[in-house]
Every structure is written in C-alpha cells, then in structure tokens.
Amino acid sequence: MFQLDVRDRKPLYEQIKEKMKALIISRALKTDERIPSVRELAQSLTINPNTIQKAYKDLETEGFIYSVRAKGSFVAPLDKKANLARRNELVQELEKIVAELLYLDEPQEQLLTLIQSIYRQKKEV
Amino acid sequence: MFQLDVRDRKPLYEQIKEKMKALIISRALKTDERIPSVRELAQSLTINPNTIQKAYKDLETEGFIYSVRAKGSFVAPLDKKANLARRNELVQELEKIVAELLYLDEPQEQLLTLIQSIYRQKKEV
Amino acid sequence: MFQLDVRDRKPLYEQIKEKMKALIISRALKTDERIPSVRELAQSLTINPNTIQKAYKDLETEGFIYSVRAKGSFVAPLDKKANLARRNELVQELEKIVAELLYLDEPQEQLLTLIQSIYRQKKEV
Amino acid sequence: MFQLDVRDRKPLYEQIKEKMKALIISRALKTDERIPSVRELAQSLTINPNTIQKAYKDLETEGFIYSVRAKGSFVAPLDKKANLARRNELVQELEKIVAELLYLDEPQEQLLTLIQSIYRQKKEV
DNA sequence: GTGGTCTAGACCACC
DNA sequence: GTGGTCTAGACCACT
What we know:
The structure is a homotetramer. Chain A is mainly α. Chain A folds into two domains: 12-75, Arc Repressor Mutant, subunit A (Orthogonal Bundle), CATH 1.10.10.10; 84-124. Chain A contains five helices and three strands. Chain A has helices at 12-25, 38-45, 49-61, 84-103, 108-124; strands at residues 34-35, 65-68, 72-75. In chain A, helix 1 (12-25) crosses helix 3 (49-61). The longest helix of chain A is centred in the last third of the chain and has 20 residues, at 84-103. The model of chain A has no long low-confidence stretch (mean pLDDT 91). Chains in contact: A-B, A-C, A-D, B-D, C-D. Chain A binds chain B through residues 21-22, 24-27, 78, 80, 83, 86-87, 90-91, 93-106, 108, 111-112, 114-116, 118-119, 122, and chain B through 21-22, 24-26, 78, 80, 83, 86-87, 90-91, 93-106, 108, 111-112, 114-116, 118-119, 122. The first copy, chain A, binds a DNA duplex through helix 3.
C-alpha cells in the first residue's frame, strides 16, 4: 500500500497518518471503502500493531476514517461542518508558506498555475 | 520582539525559528540588520540561552541569518541557489495543503484570490 | 422500526437497547404491547440473532421488557421499586452533565427551560 | 488524588479521564495548575505509564489539559468556541436522561431543584 | 479475525 | 525529570 521511511525524524504513526490521508484525499480510497486491518498493515509494514492502532485512532478522531469492532476500519464520508476548523488551519498554514515563497522571489504566476493544475486533475477523476 | 506559546506542542526552539523567519520574510528585519544576541533574547523571553543557541544555529544552516564572532547575528542576504532546496520543500507542502483543501470542497477562486492578495500586499510595502 | 449506525462506536446490542428504550420511554410502545421477536428483528436489521438476543436479555434484567416462552417479548409495566436503582444512576449521570455544562458557562435558565419543555410535551401526549 | 475501580468494566484510561475531568470541572484544579506527571500518577495508581499517557493525550485533544515536553501537564483555560460542539453533545445526552426520568415518574420539581442547587454551589466557590 | 485495552520495558527529544 | 514514541506480547469484547 505504501512504505515508511525509518530515517525520517517524523514518528512512524505520523507517517502512516499522512500516507493514509493522502490516499483518502486523492480519492484513491473511496468513502466507506475498507482499509487494511490493524494487523494486516502492521505485518505488511513490519512494525508493531500498536503503532498502527495509534495512527488509526488519530485518523478517526480527525474524521478521516471510522472503525467498527470485529469488522474493520473504513473511509469516513465528508462532514463539512466538522471540518470547518480544519479548513481554517489549512488556510493559515497556506498563508505562511506563500509568504515565504514570495520572500524567495517565487513568481505569482507559478503558484496560480500550480493550484489550477491541482484542481484540473480532480475534474479528470 | 515576539512571544512564545508554552501551550504549543512545537518545541520552543522551533517557535523561535518560525517567529524570526516571519520577521525576516515580512521584511520587518532587513538584510544585514542585527538581531538580538543569544543572551539578550534569552533574557527577554526568560528561557534558557541554549534554546536560543539551537534556534540560531538552525537559522544559520538554513541561510536566514549569519553570525560574526564577537559582533552578533545578522539577517542574511537572499542566496537563490541555497534556497532552491527550501523552495522545493515549500512547494511540496503547499501541494499537500491545496490537495486537502480541494478534498474539503474549498472553491478554487478562494485560493487564487488569497494568493493574489498576499502578493499585492508586498508591492504596497 | 429503527435503524442502526455501524459507524457508531457503541456495540450493536447497546444501540438496540437504546433505541428500544427510547420507544418505550416515549410511550410509542405501550405496556404489555408485543415487540418484534428476536428472529424478526434480526432479519429486518440484517444482523445476527445472537446480537438481538443479548440486547433483549439486558432489557429484561433492567426491567423494560419481559419474555414469555413461545409467545414473544412484551413491554413491562413500570416497577417503581426495581427502577429506584435506575433512577439513582440517571440522577448521577445528570449531575455530571450539568456540572460540565456549568463549567462551559451554560446559563442556568437554558437548562431549566429545556427540562420544562420536555415535561410539557408529555402532557400533550 | 483519586482511585480507580478495577472491577468497573470501563477501561482504566477512561476512568482516569473522568476523574481528572471531574477535578477540573469542579474547579478543584485551576487553570494552568500543574497536574501529576505521567510517571507520578502511574506510580501512585500502580498502573502502567502508557495508560496514563493515553488518558492525558485524550484530555489534551478534548481541550481539558495541555502538555509541555520537559515541563509537565497543565489544566487548559476554557475555549468557548472550541467547546460549542461539546456543549451540544451534552445537551443531547441530557435530553435522553430527562426523558427517561420522566418515564420513571420523576417529578419535574425534583430536577429543577437539582439543577438550581448545582448552580448555587458554584456561586459559593 | 477484528478493533481495543493493558503491561513491561526501552529509548529519544527537550529543557 | 518530563512528555512522547515504539516494541513485544497478552487478553478481552464483539460478530
């Protein structure tokens, strides 16, 4: 499904969260689709199940997945209201990054084009 | 100069780096301008000088400031080559954020307008 | 009759208990009225009969329903003595919740009004 | 500080969360006051530090405490905006409980008096 | 077989 | 010394 980078300073469970979020965000995993069980993923990544558990619990509290005992874990449907706070966080981070890119003399057109190309890809999906 | 947030989960030295970078990026601190010494800043923030030391060392490796022994630390001039790597990091982060915002149904126009307004502010300065 | 939510972290049998209790409490099911058999309900909810079995058994020990072999399960009449324990549990839970609401600065009037409106609805029924 | 009930079916970390929340809600622990360190509490309750860690992390994401690496954990100040969702959850739970009490013939005055007495205690503090 | 809880014991980053 | 991460291994509740 994906691989972890042991040399990365980020905690393993953070890496797992990021990779899983990326799959959900890119629609590679669809709403209500089953994701690997805690044990399966632990085995395939050769890490401890507890670490996966922790990542999954976080993803659940953040609203990306939901877990059903004795059934498995699944991609959660979007909940716009709950995600309003998250949206604001993201916009704030984006402002910081754009400000730094501006400082590095990144041309405005470059960024506009980048965003447009990301949005265009979606339509194709 | 600025304040730290003990409640923030980020390490203190990371917070110092971010605040200092923000001041440089926003041109509040200009090229070759002197920044507070390790001791001065440690005293004004009432934290351990080692923590400031670490932040300054990081900022130096990242090319934002340079230190002159017995003189102090100063804002570094832009070094485009050195900053190419940083630029690529930033673009990658930005892609992630935009992808998540798109997932949350943020309209494209909103983001384009945001970027344009950030760039417009610069001209005025 | 009602639906279950697989995304809910509560076990299915707990959800069944709650829904059934809600129907009894709201007087939608009246004393001595027959409720669906284990098999019927299992089929209509498409879940395992054992799960229903467990829910019904719990409801019986809690005094909400009673079962007659070969006849079915029925809504139990109120048994004040048996329900004294339950009443105390509820009051204790209520105290906790009100304490937390008070901590969140919920105005007292709001809560008093809420309770009055719940009681008023009953009279109308 | 408090004791756990091993016979209780609730997970230990849930019990810890509840007890700690009760102390915060009752203002026995005040804003920015330090709570026992993970290791201290683990030792005094004779349970594993990981279990405390889990409870504290949950309390942090729920906004009741904040943890500072190398310093300890502390009671968080109230954040009304963030707690609006929590308020609505609580009101919903309260409605269920009142409905069941009404079913058990609990007199309305009893509940109104209960709430008033809880609010009165606060003023005295 | 699934998610969830818990213990024991280790190591790291931070201050 | 503090919070945080991780492993290994165990047991439980649920379906």
